[in-house]
Design brief:
The complex is a heterodimer of chains A (76) and B (207). With 76 residues, chain A is α+β, with helices and mostly antiparallel strands. Chain A has one domain: K homology (KH) domain (GMP Synthetase, Chain A, domain 3, 2-Layer Sandwich), CATH 3.30.300. Helices cover 41% and strands 28% of the residues of chain A. Chain A contains three helices and three strands. Chain A has helices at 2-12, 41-45, 50-64, and strands at 20-26, 29-35, 69-75. Chain A has a three-stranded mixed β-sheet with strand order 1-2-3. The radius of gyration of chain A is 12 Å and the shape is globular. Chain A starts with a helix and ends with a strand. Chain B is of the alpha+beta class and 207 residues long. Chain B folds into three domains: 3-56, no CATH class; 60-136, GMP Synthetase, Chain A, domain 3; 140-204, 2-Layer Sandwich (Ribosomal Protein S8, Chain: A, domain 1), CATH 3.30.1370. In chain B, 40% of the residues lie in helices and 27% in strands. In chain B, helix 5 (138-160) packs across helix 6 (171-181). Chain B is elongated, with a radius of gyration of 26 Å. Classes of the chains: A alpha+beta (76), B alpha+beta (207). The A-B interface holds A 1, 3-4, 7-8, 11-12, 50-51, 53-55, 57-58, 60-62, 64-65 and B 67, 70-71, 74-76, 101-102, 104, 108-109, 111-113, 115-116, 119-120, 123-124.
Chain lengths: 76, 207
């Protein structure tokens, strides 16, 4: 799942080399903390959160198979 | 994206040096001038070569094939993809076993992935033009069902003389409804409300 998140985010930002994903798991929930270059934060969130919403939707689909809950948070 | 920096006594020379390095024709690269060449005094003193950066523009269809390939691999999905161009829109048909997860409830996963693919491809290639994704003919079937539904609801509006308010739908699906009824002179359609609860309203036209 982490790979998937990195593939998607790196394709959307201007500085793919500054994309970092931190993964923490607790019970059946996985949380991804997404770090990107400050100038890329807007690109990852999108107008009215449209981009991050789409990312979360795709990540949720990927998590169904593993029977996990997943959350994605964007941090600078 | 592949890119190189190259030098030359003129910009043209720098470009042709870059093309040799990249091994692609001129029309496939974007050139950015980093430093203009200067001839200096007496052709030697202070002469400086020009510097450019040449970046290979990716073919949109190839980019999407590659991008989706990596996405599906990361999702552990076995898929076959076919692409075709239709009225300036690149359509990808995706097939394989157990692809229900890719569609999601009312196609929301498919819509999300399609949105991401469009953003990524636009960024990588700088080209406009829409990309649509379909999984196992889902969109095609859904569109056919929407057209049937639109016609039924239009009949209802005409019969009762009252407006028919449809379920909330995404932009793509609302478009299908509007298009399905645009040639029917007895009804008019419009969309009301805010996303994601925006819905189509069909009203009978009194003549």
């Amino acid at each position: 799942m982490r790979d998937l998140l990195e593939i998607i985010v790196k394709a959307l930002v201007d500085h793919p080399d500054q994309v970092e994903v931190k993964e923490t798991e607790e019970g059946g929930s996985v949380t991804f903390e997404l770090h990107v270059a400050p100038s890329d934060i807007g690109k990852v969130i999108g107008r009215q959160g449209r981009v991050v919403k789409a990312i979360r939707t795709v990540m949720k689909a990927a998590a169904i198979r593993d029977n996990k809950r997943v959350s994605v948070e964007v941090l600078g | 994206m592949r890119s190189v920096e190259a030098k030359g006594r003129t910009i043209d020379e720098a470009i042709s040096n870059a093309l040799t390095l990249l091994g692609v024709p001129r029309e496939r690269v974007a050139i950015e001038i980093l430093e203009e060449p200067s001839r200096g005094i007496f052709g030697m003193l202070g002469a400086r070569e020009g510097r450019i950066r040449a970046t290979v523009k990716e073919n949109k269809e190839e980019f999407v094939h590659d991008f989706l390939g990596r996405v599906f691999k990361a999702m552990d999905l076995e898929v076959k993809m076919h692409s075709r161009t239709e009225n300036g829109c690149i359509c990808f048909d995706i097939e394989g076993p157990n692809l229900g997860v890719l569609i999601g409830r009312r196609g929301q996963t498919l819509d999300a992935l399609q949105y991401i693919v469009n953003l990524a491809a636009g960024k990588a290639t700088g080209e406009g033009g829409r990309i649509t994704l379909d999984v196992e003919g889902y969109r095609k079937r859904r569109n056919e069902a929407l057209v049937r539904l639109a016609k039924r609801m239009a009949e209802k509006a005409k019969r009762t003389g009252q407006r028919v308010v449809m379920e909330p739908m995404g932009a793509g699906e609302r478009r299908v409804i509007h298009l399905a009824l645009q040639n029917d002179p007895d009804v008019s359609t419009r969309s009301e409300g805010n996303e994601p609860y925006r819905r189509v309203i069909i009203s009978a036209v009194r003549r």
